């Protein structure tokens, strides 16, 4: 292997898969400056031949590098290190050799990787996505494109996708809806904008969970809403707190399946109390079911909307967590009585997403790939959650306690002793990790101190322990 780079010596006896070793070594070479932006890397075929591996092994590593933004494919020009990374290069190219690891100058922190850092929240396991199936469906959709398909897509979304979503929700989430009630949007932010413009007025009070999802509050503020933070405990949203502090609010934004960020489920008594409040107050409930499919203790819970008998619940779903974020498609199920209103508003404000992407997603669903993918990911995430929890607990058990939780895509690590989550989260971010502090997601007094760490891309016990040791050095 005379042309093999020094950094690509692989350990065939290691437990880490070979594709993962290739990926890790390329990533480190880029972050360490051994491979510079715009540098060309060997083709998958050439490198496979050089390393004596199957071409698919190298392609899997390259796909992961491309998905995370490290490399770009330029057709006949080959694959190169992403040119945009030059903007993040260190101001002083000179590097001082290190004899031991330093938390503040590690390889991970030397190279900002905003697309995918360890513990990145909201990022599914991209390495497990069925890319070949997706590519086949995409190629077929492109070949079948007609002139009419290149015009503006329907404001509310393409009929085949709306039908596929309605069918899926009836079977998996217990939601009895028709395709006409389903509105395709370009993401959660677009969904919430559609709701506020259709049903609310500037100055209206809106319940938001505390702690909660910061973009929700920011979007509502921009729309002129008056926020009413409502406490969350082990049973989810404390409805009595909301009734006591903001009884005349016009809406509530909730995450009943896995509360964001605590991952607790809204109990049945609280669900019924919330529905009673909405009926009596003539208010609306937006059910943000961002990852309700991923429950590991039992089957996924039925949606809150399935209990609604008064047409007060709007169900918001997304493909970002179950497929991949770049798909940029979400959906909203509105009560039958509100269909005409949302059709009117969607003509002005909605952005249902590119028609081609809608076609691919609807085919992915209609041919059974979507349901199979969710089943596989549910098993995979249960395994990776256990791997991450056990690996981190083995290293950090004296300092952090991992909350038990029935589902979700991240862990909640409670701080012990005098440690504070904000300071540690900031040090972790400086060290190249994507930690979030729980206290930063709360405005009510007595905010808890904890780290929010996604586990979806932690695939080996060794990786979990390595990350745990990095955190330990920062404490």
What report would you give on this structure?
It contains 15 helices and 15 strands. Helix 7 (188-199) packs across helix 11 (339-349). Mean pLDDT is 87; it is low at 89-115. 39% of the residues lie in helices and 13% in strands. The two termini are 43 Å apart. It has 3 domains: 6-91, Winged helix-like DNA-binding domain superfamily/Winged helix DNA-binding domain (Arc Repressor Mutant, subunit A, Orthogonal Bundle), CATH 1.10.10; 134-368, Type I PLP-dependent aspartate aminotransferase-like (Major domain) (Aspartate Aminotransferase, domain 2), CATH 3.40.640; 371-474, Aspartate Aminotransferase, domain 1. Strands 4-11-10-9-8-5-6-7 form an 8-stranded mixed β-sheet, with helices on both faces. The protein has helices spanning 18-31, 44-51, 55-67, 107-110, 131-143, 159-172, 188-199, 214-222, 239-245, 268-281, 339-349, 355-366, 369-396, 421-430, 461-474; strands spanning 40-41, 71-73, 79-81, 182-185, 205-210, 226-233, 236-237, 251-254, 284-288, 313-318, 330-333, 400-402, 410-415, 436-437, 450-454. It is of the alpha/beta class.
Question: In summary, what is this structure?
Answer:
By secondary structure, the protein is α/β, with parallel strands linked by helices. 39% of the residues lie in helices and 13% in strands.
């Amino acid at each position: 292997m005379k042309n093999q780079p020094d950094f690509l010596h692989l350990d065939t006896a290691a437990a880490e898969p070979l594709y993962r070793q290739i990926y890790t070594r390329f990533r480190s070479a880029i972050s360490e400056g051994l491979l510079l932006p715009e540098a060309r890397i060997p083709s998958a075929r050439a490198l496979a031949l050089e390393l004596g591996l199957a071409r698919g092994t190298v392609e899997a590593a390259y796909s992961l590098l491309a998905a995370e933004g490290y490399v770009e494919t330029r057709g006949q020009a080959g694959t190169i290190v992403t040119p945009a990374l030059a903007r993040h290069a260190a101001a002083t190219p000179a590097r001082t050799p290190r004899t031991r690891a330093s938390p503040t100058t590690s390889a991970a922190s030397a190279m900002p990787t905003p697309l995918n850092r360890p513990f990145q929240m909201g990022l599914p396991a991209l390495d497990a996505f069925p890319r070949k199936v997706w590519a086949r469906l995409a190629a077929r959709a492109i070949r079948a494109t007609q002139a009419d398909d290149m015009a503006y897509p329907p404001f509310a979304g393409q009929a085949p996708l709306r039908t596929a979503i309605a069918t899926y929700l009836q079977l998996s989430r217990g939601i009895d809806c028709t395709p006409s009630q389903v509105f395709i949007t370009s993401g959660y932010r677009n969904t919430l904008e559609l709701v506020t413009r259709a049903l609310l007025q500037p100055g209206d009070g809106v319940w938001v969970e505390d702690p909660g999802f910061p973009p929700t509050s920011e979007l509502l503020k921009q729309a002129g809403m008056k926020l009413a933070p409502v406490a969350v405990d082990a049973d989810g949203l404390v409805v009595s707190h909301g009734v006591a502090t903001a009884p005349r609010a016009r809406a509530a934004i909730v995450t009943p399946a896995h509360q964001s960020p605590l991952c607790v489920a809204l109990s049945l008594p609280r669900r019924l109390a919330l529905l009673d409040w909405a009926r009596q107050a003539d208010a609306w409930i937006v059910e943000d079911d961002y990852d309700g499919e991923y429950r590991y203790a039992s089957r996924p819970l039925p949606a809150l909307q399935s209990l609604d008998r008064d047409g007060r619940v709007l169900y918001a779903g997304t493909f970002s967590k179950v497929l991949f974020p770049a798909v940029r498609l979400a959906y909203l199920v509105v009560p039958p009585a509100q269909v005409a209103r949302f059709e009117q508003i969607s003509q002005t404000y909605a952005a249902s997403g590119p028609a081609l992407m809608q076609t691919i997603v609807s085919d992915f669903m209609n041919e059974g790939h979507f349901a199979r993918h969710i089943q596989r990911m549910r098993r995979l995430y249960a395994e990776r959650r256990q791997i991450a929890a056990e690996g981190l607990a083995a290293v950090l058990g004296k300092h952090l306690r991992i909350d038990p939780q029935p589902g979700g895509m991240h862990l909640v690590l409670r701080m012990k002793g005098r440690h504070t989550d904000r300071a540690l989260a900031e040090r972790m971010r400086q060290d190249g990790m994507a930690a979030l502090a729980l206290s930063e997601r709360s405005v009510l007094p007595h905010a808890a101190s904890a780290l929010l760490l996604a586990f979806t891309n932690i695939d080996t016990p060794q990786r979990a322990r390595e990350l745990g040791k990095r955190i330990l050095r920062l404490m």
